[in-house]
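Chain A, query sequence.
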Amino acid sequence: MKKTHLFTALFAVLATVINAQNNFGKDYFCLGEYKIANNYFEQQISQSPAESYYYLGEIAFTEGEIDKAKAFFEKGIAANPLYMLNYIGQGKLQLKTNQKAAETIFATALKKNKKNVELNVAIARAYYECGMKDIATEKIELARKYGKKSPLVYTLEGDILAAENNPGEAAGKYEQAIYFDPNYTVASIKCAKVYESINPTLSVEMLNKVIEAHPDYTVAYRGIGNSYSQKGMYQRAIEAYTLFFAEKNYNIEDITRFAFAYFFTDQFEKSITLVDEGLALEPANFVLNRLRMYDASKVNDSVNGLNYANYFFTLKSEKGEFIPLDYMAYAIILTDAGEYSKALKIFNGMLESDPNKTDVYKELYTVYSKMGESGKAAASYKKYMELMGADYLSVLDYYQLGRAYYAAASSLSNDSTEIGKTQFEEYIAKADSAFTTVCNLTPDSYTGYLWRGHTNALLDPETTLGLAKPHYEAAANAILNKAKENNGVNGNQKDLVTCYQYLGYYYYLKEDKENSTKYWNMVLELDPNNANAKAVMDEYSRPAKKK
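Chain A, predicted structure.
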């Protein structure tokens, strides 16, 4: 009894494997994966010539190679006159030019196979693919009459609905096909494709089941990648696309999606590699040229970026419409190339159409900073933060704002005019306010305290008031506390030297030799060749001059 069960199980496994092998090419053909299907059937000609020639003929038909399709169908009939699908293929070739002759061929094929669902569905599909939907619908009903539970009938209905942009009803038909045959992989993958945009989570679940049952159906990974991309889970999408691309059966659309996934995860060099591969196949591809320009704007590739941008904007009339992000990327590239006036013209033009375009103000900050217009840079970043709103700002934003106002104040530090002095003090106050916020948001970090020190030192350049002293002391303490947490490892030695130098100089001016010496020695411990520390300690080592 045990042996019987063992052999039954063994034969069941073998049957499953054989069935999967036999369905592989057909499934991939039905999924529109013609390249994979074509390779499969070319290798299967010696084993199953009639079937292989039929599908090779169907692939040729879809690619518009009618003579080639005709030759394949004839070879299929010669190999096995009883394999009726090749006759259906011959009939399809005549539907548009001689419908009566085609119908005669169909009738002959069905003469002894009237109730064959596969043949009836193939005929229905032939009518639909030749633009005769009404007759195709009639033939589908006839196929349903002979096979109410056949997944082929419902899958064809789903294909027609999907082609007519009716995803909801298409999914319903595919689900019916799955209901009647849970192992029909084609319906599962097609249904998952429909759900990519409307329910990506369900799509991934369906495709994972496909892979679990058929690990060699790597096309499922494409769908998983697409679904994760729809959800904005680009790193997960990359993992799936990587598995799919390993089989080398991808197309331009796949390259584009994979490249965008890399772009959205800031992996710009990898995105560029894929885009360049795609452009080698389709140099005028509108979307890939757009993405290539975007990538260039992210990696500061101003030379190539300008070339890509200039070419991209010539594609408008034939390939598509431009969007604000296109102009944004172009202006960023112009900024990197030092063509500031052109960049400003684009950015200001974007603000004319939409004064609340947040990202433009952030880019204006960069342009004005590179131009040395620090006051305008600070104003631009301030406007960016106002439009973003406090709930969406990070500590980095306040730090960046503080740096912008600090730079603006520095540019006026030698301005002796009343207007200049007033503006200088205003910038100092705004910088100090921004860095105070940094301190409040990250009290354990030294950065805010350090820059409050820099800002107040700028306001008190002679160090006569010691305005920066409490801030540098706080910064030094924060650095030392962080070092303790890291088992004594100090990763901010340079900034700690800055704090000690200020404190040493402050006490030097106060003629507090004891404290001054303490801080200059601390400087020398960190930076033995520090010229300032050496000079002061050398002075202290000499005998005091008599008054």
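The chain has a mean pLDDT of 92. DSSP finds 30 helices and no strands in the chain.
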